[in-house]
Specification:
about 575 residues, alpha/beta, Rossmann fold, Serine Threonine Protein Phosphatase 5, Tetratricopeptide repeat, seven-stranded mixed beta sheet, six-stranded mixed beta sheet, about 45% helix, globular
């Protein structure tokens, strides 16, 4: 468990401030993350990476000359918000466009994709390459569904080297795609990891046993076995990766591999070198050349006792870029001169928003919305551990923390707007922006959409009727299914939101309190029914069976919030 911290809520911010203070010659802080602290080269592509915190040196630690131009930093094990991605890209770009690259996780995909759309609309060319190297998270036939783990280092490195060489965006994209398609990783764990402020690990491995196919966010392994010797482990890992040789490389008589033995935090360097020694011997016997191998902690997961092995099948271009020097806080290769930083200032303050007044009716509604947001804040805080536990059965265990953090931010922003005389719509949209930004992750963007769509429908000129409320929920539901692609039966929040919306619409002749209560009962039942479903999308999908018998955390938290609002409307 993490031992050195103050308030767990401040962990990422304090760690970031310390990181920047220690490496101010290389990085500077911007809203949402960090960027290089050197003069930009006009017209060059900016490679921006990112994801949840808790994996140092990924992601901030590999920003610097020869590698990433910027890193977007989410909360621990939680994707950064759209606002953060957009902000870091704007700070990093220098006229040549932006290449985004990150691990293939639902929350990251949602937030980065939305930011990419915003950048392109603003005239900043932007493309994305998802890292999908984890062979245990999906079959060969579903390569595009695989997670991104330690192999992202290679993808980031060669993409950045191509950008540094002056390649245009289309060619940097091509190089990164090729790198990802030739990269494969497999991981093992001997113990779980623990989130800051928590005392129990996200998953456990029985003593003397090893879990195969773990995730770097605390997702449990897919199978367990007795701990093998290092030679046995090396043979198993190498065999599995070589079985994954890309089709384009199968007839290559001169195989060259980039090899990364990565420690996840609790398996230290001497042990990693023992493992590499055995891997080296196996590959030498097979006449497979190794090009500039890496052994160390490069993509971690707090104190998780685990390791992963990554192979990348090289061609001439990828080998050239892999060998290029780099100098970052957490990863160095070769020798290069580094110019002094251009600024040591920390720029992380939120922009002030203009607050326009609403009508008297809408202002009264806004004050009730503020009360509801405060109730949601209290409820999510009370149930944070419960929803974190639900999430840990097959996911990364951060749902409770993310909901509590987002609800707190929404309540704070809502009160600021409500007290200033804003209407219901503006109050909800301010709450939406704050929830999305502070929570990050899948739940952050989903709740941002819900509140924002309701706010648009409410407006600032009159109090909403039952019909307007029902229409607002219906539009929020449609926007979420369109954006996230989840459907009924996928074991997500949608399994509650759609039947709730449908029932609310059918109760248009009732009072708001009566209609909402009737729909709330449907939502509670729908949430309970998710215990019988297997997840079909998102981080929980590779561990589907482990979630059977447990409600989906997003569905459960939504039903809880709906019921809390029903109680408020009834005056309870």
């Amino acid at each position: 468990m993490p031992y050195v911290l103050n308030d767990p809520e401040d962990f990422v911010d304090e760690a970031t401030e310390g990181f920047v203070a220690a490496h101010a010659h290389l990085v500077r802080r911007v809203q949402g993350g960090v960027v290089r602290n050197q003069e930009k080269i006009n017209g060059h592509v900016a490679v921006v990476i990112g994801g949840g915190s808790g994996h140092y040196p990924a992601f901030a630690g590999i920003v610097g000359p020869g590698l990433a131009h910027g890193a977007v930093m989410g909360n621990v094990f939680s994707s950064p918000s759209t606002q953060r991605v957009h902000s870091v890209c704007k700070a990093a770009e220098s006229g040549g466009g932006v290449l985004l690259s990150y691990g293939n996780y639902a929350g990251d995909v949602m937030n980065f994709n939305l930011a990419q759309s915003q950048l392109n609309a603003e005239g900043i060319p932007c493309k994305t390459v998802l890292v999908t190297d984890d062979i245990m998270s999906a079959s060969k036939e579903e390569f595009h569904k695989r997670r991104g783990i330690a192999g992202d280092l290679f993808v980031f490195k060669v993409a950045a080297a191509a950008a540094e060489a002056g390649y245009p965006l289309d060619d940097v994209y091509r190089v990164a795609v090729e790198a990802n398609e030739r990269t494969r990783t497999i991981g093992v764990a001997f113990s779980g990891c623990t989130l800051p402020g928590k005392t129990e690990p996200l998953f456990t491995v029985p003593k003397g046993r090893m879990a195969l196919g773990l995730g770097i966010h605390g997702e449990p392994g897919l199978s367990e076995s007795d701990i093998p010797t290092s030679k046995e482990l090396a043979l198993d890992l190498v065999t599995r990766l070589l079985e994954e040789t890309p089709d384009s490389c199968r007839n290559d008589s001169n195989i060259r591999l980039s090899v990364l033995v990565n420690g996840l935090g609790g398996v230290k360097y001497e042990e990693l070198y023992v493992l590499y020694n055995n891997i080296f011997a196996i590959l030498k016997e097979k006449n497979i050349a190794i090009v500039e191998p890496e052994v160390g902690e490069l993509v971690t997961s707090f104190e998780m006792a685990g390791a992963s092995l990554t192979f990348t099948w090289l061609n001439d271009e990828l080998e050239e870029f892999w060998k290029k020097p780099t100098y970052t806080p957490g990863y160095k290769k070769g020798a290069m001169s580094v110019h002094s930083g251009i600024s040591q200032s920390v720029s992380s303050h939120d922009e002030k928003k203009e607050i326009s007044k609403g009508s008297a009716e809408s202002r009264d509604c806004a004050l009730n919305i503020v009360k509801i947001l405060q109730i949601i804040e209290t409820k999510t805080s009370q149930h944070s551990d419960e929803y974190g536990q639900l999430d840990s059965y097959a996911g990364d265990g951060d749902h409770g923390i993310g909901m509590a953090r987002g609800a707190h931010a929404a309540a704070t922003a809502g009160k600021q707007f409500g007290d200033a005389g804003a209407g219901a719509g503006s109050t909800l949209e301010a709450a939406a922006d704050s929830w999305s930004d502070k929570a990050g992750g899948t739940s952050g963007i989903i709740w941002g959409i819900i509140l924002r769509e309701i706010g648009k429908e409410f407006g600032d000129t009159k109090a909403p009727t039952v019909g307007v409320v029902a229409s607002a929920i219906q539009k929020a539901s449609a926007e979420i299914t369109n954006f996230g692609k989840a459907q009924i039966g996928d074991k997500t929040l949608v399994d509650v939101l759609i039947p709730f919306s449908q029932k609310l619409s059918s109760e248009a002749g009732s009072s708001l309190a009566q209609a909402w209560r009737s729909a709330s009962n449907v939502a509670t039942h729908a949430a309970a029914e998710t215990a019988n479903l297997l997840p079909k999308i998102g981080r929980a999908r590779p561990h589907a069976e482990k979630s059977l018998g447990h409600q989906d955390p997003g569905a459960a938290s939504l039903a809880m919030i709906i019921e809390a609002i029903a109680n408020f409307l009834e005056g309870k």
